[in-house]
Amino acid sequence: MPQKSSCIFLLLFFSIHLNINQQLAKAQTPTPTAPICPTQLKTTIDAVTNRPLFSRARWGILVQNLGSNQTLYSQDAHKYFTPASNTKLLTTAAALQQLGENYRFRTSIYRGSNNFLYIVGRGDPSLTDAQLRILAKQLKQKSITQIQQLVVDDRYIRGDLVPSSWQWEDIYSDYGAPVGSVILNQNTFSFNLLPQTLGKPALISWTDADEAKQWRVINQSVTVAQNQPNSIKVTRELSGNVLRIQGQLAANSQPYLVTLPVVDPNYYFLRRFRSALAAENITLGRTSIGIYANNQQEVAAVLSPPLSKLLIEINQNSNNLYAEAILRALAIKKTPLPNQATADTALEVLKTTLTQMGVNSTGYALVDGSGLSRKNLISPEALVQTLQAMANSPQASIFRASLPVAGVNGTLKNRFQNTPAAKIVQAKTGTLTGAISLSGYINPPKYRPLVFSIIVNQTDQPASIVRKAIDEIVVSLAQLQRCQ
Asked: Signal peptide: which range, if any (predicted)?
């Protein structure tokens, strides 16, 4: 996935992101080619990378036989590239090695000696309103019907809620939501825009009435005639509580969903939990942010799905928030005491883990766990080393199952359909402006299994064109055959 200035206001155009995503989804399927021998592979791949439209682009490619260091093709494989979401391969590999497939996040509520209740979040990215209702029911079962004060302790994960190297348009988009000790509904909120009669502004339908109270909306949109193109943009201030809606919505259009990151995850959590408590007839007084004592009694708790399930969300759907939360879990394991876990500590654990797996530590330099930062640097060689190491690990099947399958699911669902690569390629995608990547495994029916990494940087071509070229190469790999 799917990404600073001193101006007073920062206006972000979400419709641009939507249009880009729609364009990427329509990338053409490469035309199947004839079976090729390994000796033909260099000529075949070079014919793609040397096209005039890629004359200014940088290609990094490495193709090896799975389970060995035998290289079938290499182009600048040892050099650094901006990897985009291929970064998630390193993050999930390290997490699986360090935490294990059964690791779960725990969100707890403790009762203090002062009868205050303390919520301790540990960075569960999967927490939703449904889990809040479970917590409320557990409190009701403990005969807790009135809470004098509810306190959020958010000390487990420290540091910036978003990496400082993320761009402004990313941190104000739903795919760049903040990550901390308390995460709820992926730290986003939504509303729908509905058409009205011609000339009237689009109607705002909030999914959360409490969230609607947090914003002052300037609605400058307009309803236009049926079958006209929708062109909506939602902008917000860098600080403050103003949302501005502009553009047009056709009179016969479906509801237009807008999703934005929350401003303060702690207080968003408290607002939503107040509603869950009210549904159980539990009265809540004051709310605040504070610190709990370790000797308090746990009165309610919920667990996340196991790591094996969370990895599927990260790699198949390229979920940035999940990846960043999983990264920080590495730091929590190293320093389980509150106020110690940071992204930097987690990256140190990641590097140590990958080195132990045989991945050359000089082959990458990371600043986040999702790949959203343009400061991440990874070589195709490091990605292939990671894939090779995971294929030889006890967690091989879990790791591989987390990857999208060509033409079947995740970010590869609409790619490679009706080609020889369909269903036999499992790989992680990556897309940033000017940086497209794909790395994973291939099981050619007439050749031994392969591992590969392809990264394209510094291209001025549309992402759909670059992805089509990458897919042509992968289709060729899928048709390798043993030749005399």
From this structure: 1-25
For residue 306, what are the contacts with CB-CB under 8 A and spacing of at least 6? 101, 102, 103, 104
Q: What percent of the chain has pLDDT over 70?
A: 91
- Count the domains in the chain: 2
Question: Domain range holding 392?
Answer: 17-100+309-478
How far apart CA 432 and CA 1 sit, in angstroms, is 8
Q: How far apart are CA 484 and CA 481, in angstroms?
A: 10
State residue 20's pLDDT score. 38
222: helix, strand or coil: strand
Q: What's the confidence (pLDDT) of residue 342?
A: 85
420 domain residue, yes or no: yes
**Where does a domain end: 289, 304, 319?**
304
Q: Are residue 264 and residue 345 in the same domain, yes or no?
A: no
pTM of the model: 0.90
Phi, psi of 363 (to 5 degrees): -90, 0
Q: Are residues 171 and 290 in the same domain?
A: yes
For residue 160, give every residue at least 6 positions away whose Cβ sits within 8 Å of its Cβ, in sequence order, or none. 343
Token pair recorded at residue 121:
């979040």
Beta strand 146-153 with 283-289 is parallel
Give CA separation, 193 vs 21, 207, 212, in Å: 20, 11, 13
Q: What CATH number is given to the structural domain containing 298?
A: 3.50.80.20
Strand partners, 378: 81, 364
Assess contact for 79 and 60: CB atoms under 8 A: yes
Same domain, 375 and 279: no
Give residue 110's Cα distance to chain centre.
31
Give the whole-angstrom CA distance, residue 233 versus residue 222. Answer: 12
Going by DSSP bridges, is the β-strand pair 58-65/450-457 parallel, antiparallel, or unpaired? antiparallel
**Which pLDDT belongs to residue 31?**
53
List CB contacts of 218: < 8 A, sequence separation 6 or more. 242, 243, 244, 245
Give me the phi and psi of 143, to 5 degrees please: 65, 30
Residues 152 and 299 in one domain: yes
Instruction: State whether 181 and 268 are in the same domain.
Output: yes
Enumerate residue ranges in the chain where pLDDT < 50. 1-29, 32
Structure tokens at 346: 């987690």
Residue type at 201 in one-letter notation = P
Q: Where are the beta strands (DSSP E) in 251-408?
A: 256-261, 283-289, 297-303, 364-365, 377-378
Domain assignment present for residue 413? The answer is yes
Which of 246, 269, 304 is where one domain is finished?
304
